[in-house]
Write a structure and sequence with these properties.
heterodimer; A: 283 residues; 10 helices; B: 580 residues; alpha+beta; five-stranded mixed beta sheet; 17 helices; 20 strands; 18% strand
């Protein structure tokens, strides 16, 4: 891989290397060095009266941290242009992850462990929220796709929907001879929107009010052919729904962190602006 | 086995045409070619696509015969088994075949062409349901709202409030509390809600003049020019840092806030680190050649020997700097050997033992505390008072009338002359004892002489003020302005005028640890310890485990350099300001 620089093109770069392992953990090493330097500077200097953001080291770490934050946030711009080579999107993402983690050290040492109820700590807290959500994202991206793929069993999302619909059509047909009470059960199951669940339902994968389940239980033990058929169809619908819900749960976990990560980043940029301007305003 | 094939077609008006035909076979074929049992005219269907075989018991096997598979209940398959009682839905191209069982037990295959454009992968709208897009508020919207709220609350409100406020009004800037990076020092605590009282102008660092507007009496440590000279050439790193700081509008080095860093929690603002002092005093001699001060950077490592401000001429009370650390002497006017008084086996100890508890003396002899009484605050010692501290032994009684002892008055030579002079006018009591001596010698007899009791020369007018007289026990006789007198006594309360020392903080030490009084035979011995003695406990700011970390500020002041006077060390800013 090392010789692939510059000459790399799509044909040659087929073997997959994740953004975490990019170039033999290059950015992990760089970020580690950065942290070690920050730690060394923090513990080898003895600022008076105490370490804080307003010592020379504090200002240096603060400047570095602010530049890092702005650059990290630019991934949102950069990711919309996928390129190859030295500054490939993968390299950028790898750097984003590891430099982002190094911010924990840089920014914490910048604070000198002086935290309080103010805009400065707000910026710090938002930054930590962004980093923590990002760490969740890395975990999700590293572990969930395999779970997602084993759950799908080569079905596409469209097929999952089609499958539910196919069962719905059959249920609708099969349930025609049923009486009012049972027809209502089937109707409730059919009316249930698989995508109607909210965030918590999706993330927990727990659906206590599932109408299909309820209908299935109430239809159990039917001896006539129609009832038996409807029950079997409900059973299949339930199985398909469960697969679909597992899929939704994994998808939700893959996506949900971004709903924290991105808005918190923008909030962080705002708080960072307020932090820096306020410091110089009351200089 | 009967397969009932039900073809449902729609007319242009939407009416459904249902055609049933039965097909008795074990297996039927599906494909685009006309000879198939189920003929599906769709290019996406292969000429011979699949077969449906009866497996008995209502079970059907569906197998793809060509290269393409089919869809069963939405899932791609090439081979599947269907229970016709449960049913299933097969998809071939745009055709859908619903499998079920008719009332007579025949397998019912309902064929319908799906006229919607829905593809097998479903349409995009449906797939969107898997994502969180519809479930959570959009990332962009949330970002904008949070960003704007933060900028408004934490930036726009305080800035606008600051720019538009009336400087004369007492009302503070709205919302700037959120800018406070840390609690103010204890002394400035009441300014917490008045940021603008120090941060007067936007983007202008806090100026010394602002500090001085309250701290009016704060002295400069020295002439600013001399301070600058003493600071000398800063190290390269410091120069770079200061050039950066100056770029951002900071004053200094030497501005108030360079030492007194604010917003560091509710601490005391004074007592900066020794480095602040060492920056100049570490190499003061080379930067400021005419200074009288020695270099000092760390008490344990570099600090000049102490000098005591001791009396050298008792007649005038003149004091001079006397270097400590070796044999040092002063002349306070007294004649007093400490050794004689402290010797536990000497006559003084014996006499103290005899006097005992009546005067607070212990049997073991005199103790330092018997004469040296601490001040109320315990910081230092009161001057010796003759009547209280000496007279138990050094009696000033010169006569006894009846049961009353007549005493000289200490400190008043004229009175002494009067008292002793008057004493001689009084007829002495006879020396006779009441017994008669043989012969004519007797009171009232032929020969009689009234002898007075023998009196000590030192208690007589002629001898009292001599070296061997009662005053000469402790004082040195002299004449002042032609009159008999003793050399005046000066008892300095403090010998160190540029530093603080607190005896109360050293209670656990014995007096002798620092003041070697037990060996002193002369009153002129200056019994003050040198720096070496202090260093047995005190080292610089960075101390080893068993030593006392002592920064410059432990003993010295910055603004009030000379206030190490008779008073206790000022503990707070107010006191420091007043003591200047």
């Amino acid at each position: 891989m090392a010789t692939a620089h510059g000459t790399a093109n799509r044909e040659y770069a087929t073997s997959h290397e994740s953004f975490l392992r990019h170039k033999g953990f290059r950015w992990l090493k760089i970020a580690t060095i950065l942290c070690v330097i920050a730690f060394a500077a923090y513990f080898l200097t003895d600022p008076k009266p105490r370490p804080s953001g307003s010592t020379w080291l504090g200002y240096t770490l603060g400047t570095l941290g602010a530049l890092l934050i702005v650059w990290l946030a630019l991934l949102g711009v950069r990711k919309r242009a996928i390129t190859e080579g030295r500054w490939s999107l993968k390299a950028w993402t790898s750097a984003h992850v590891y430099l982002g983690l190094s911010l924990i050290v840089v920014a914490t040492l910048h604070t000198g462990f002086q935290l309080g109820w103010n805009v400065h700590t707000l910026a710090y807290a938002l930054m930590m929220l962004v980093i923590l959500s990002g760490m969740f994202g890395i975990w999700a991206y590293a572990t969930l796709p395999s779970a997602l793929s084993s759950n799908r069993e080569e079905m596409t999302q469209g097929q999952m929907i089609d499958a539910v619909r196919a069962l719905d059509r059959q249920l609708d047909d099969a349930a025609q001879p049923l009486g009012r009470a049972q027809a209502d059960l089937v109707l409730a199951a059919l009316a249930e929107d698989p995508f109607g669940a909210g965030l918590l339902r999706r993330l927990s994968g727990h659906y206590p009010n599932c109408a299909t389940q309820a209908a299935m239980l109430r239809m159990a033990g039917q001896n006539d052919a129609v009832g038996e058929r409807v029950e079997k169809l409900l059973l299949r619908r339930k199985a398909m729904l469960e697969r679909l819900r597992r899929h939704m749960r994994l998808k939700a976990m893959l996506e949900v962190w971004l709903y924290v990560h991105v808005p918190a980043t923008m909030a962080l940029l705002a708080a960072l602006t307020a932090h820096i301007i306020s410091v110089f305003y009351y200089w | 086995m009967t397969f009932r094939i039900r073809q449902i077609e729609q007319t242009a008006t939407g009416r459904e045409i249902v055609r049933d035909r039965d097909c008795d076979a074990e297996s039927i074929t599906i494909g685009r070619a006309a000879e198939n049992d189920i003929h599906l005219p769709d290019l996406a269907v292969e000429p011979s696509h699949a077969t449906i075989t009866d497996r008995g018991g209502g079970r059907l096997a569906v197998d793809a015969t060509g290269t393409l598979g089919f869809v069963l209940d939405g899932i791609d398959s090439r081979s599947a088994s269907i229970d016709s009682r449960g049913g299933g839905e097969l998809g071939f191209g745009t055709y859908r075949i619903t499998v079920s069982q008719d009332t007579d037990g025949a397998v019912l295959l309902t064929i319908r062409q799906v006229d919607t454009a829905a593809t097998r992968s479903g349409d995009l709208e449906d797939k969107r349901g898997f994502s969180l897009q519809g479930v959570l508020p959009g990332k962009r919207l949330t970002s904008w709202i949070m960003g704007i709220v933060i900028l408004l609350a934490f930036l726009a409100v305080p800035v606008i409030s600051h720019l538009t406020r009336d400087p004369a009004s007492k009302k503070g800037v709205i919302g700037d509390t959120s800018w406070n990076p840390g609690a103010l020092s204890a002394g400035h605590h009441k300014l917490t809600d008045n940021c603008e009282s120090c941060h007067v102008d936007a983007f202008v660092s806090v100026r010394d003049e602002t500090c001085m507007s309250c701290h009016k009496d704060t002295h400069d440590h020295a002439d600013p020019g001399r301070i600058a000279a003493a600071r000398g050439n800063l190290p390269l790193g410091d120069r770079i840092l200061w050039s950066v700081a100056h770029t951002f509008g900071k004053k200094g080095p030497g501005a108030c806030q360079d030492c007194h860093a604010e917003h560091q929690g509710p601490t005391k603002l004074d007592a900066p680190s020794q480095q602040f002092c060492a920056d100049c005093h570490g190499q003061l001699k080379s930067n400021l050649p005419d200074t009288k001060l020695g270099d000092a950077s760390d008490f344990g490592k570099l600090h000049p020997q102490f000098t005591a401000d001791a009396v050298i001429d008792p007649m005038t009370g003149k004091r001079a700097a006397v270097l400590l650390g070796g044999p040092a002497s002063e002349d306070n006017g007294l004649t007093f050997p400490h050794k004689l008084h402290l010797d536990p086996r000497g006559g003084v100890a014996r006499m103290a033992g005899n006097l005992g508890a009546e005067r607070g003396y212990k049997a073991g002899g005199m103790q330092c505390k018997d004469c040296h009484r601490p001040t109320e605050d315990g910081v230092r010692f009161k001057p010796i008072e003759m009547e209280r501290d000496c007279e138990a032994c050094h009696s000033l009684a010169y006569d006894k009338v009846g049961g009353i002892f007549r005493r000289l008055r200490h400190g008043n030579v004229d009175q002494l002359i009067a008292d002793l002079g008057a004493r001689d006018y009084r007829p002495s009591s006879p020396a006779e004892t009441g017994r008669r001596r043989p012969g004519e010698y007797a009171a009232g007899g032929l020969y009689s002489f009234n002898f007075t009791a023998p009196a000590w020369h030192g208690l007589q007018l002629q001898g009292a003020l001599s070296k061997n007289g009662i005053c000469g026990e402790c004082h040195r006789p002299t004449t002042i302005k032609g009159k008999l007198a003793v050399v005046p006594v000066t008892q300095p309360m403090r010998y160190m005028s540029h530093g603080w020392f607190d005896h109360a903080d050293h209670k656990q030490e014995k007096c002798e640890s620092c003041h070697v009084a037990g060996k002193s035979t002369k009153a002129s011995d200056l019994l003050l310890p040198g720096i070496k003695d202090c260093r047995t406990c005190h080292v610089g700011e960075k101390s080893q485990k068993d030593k006392v970390a002592s920064s410059c500020a432990m003993c010295h002041g910055y603004h009030a350099t000379a206030s190490g006077s008779e008073k206790a060390k000022p503990e707070d800013k107010q006191a420091a300001m007043q003591s200047d």
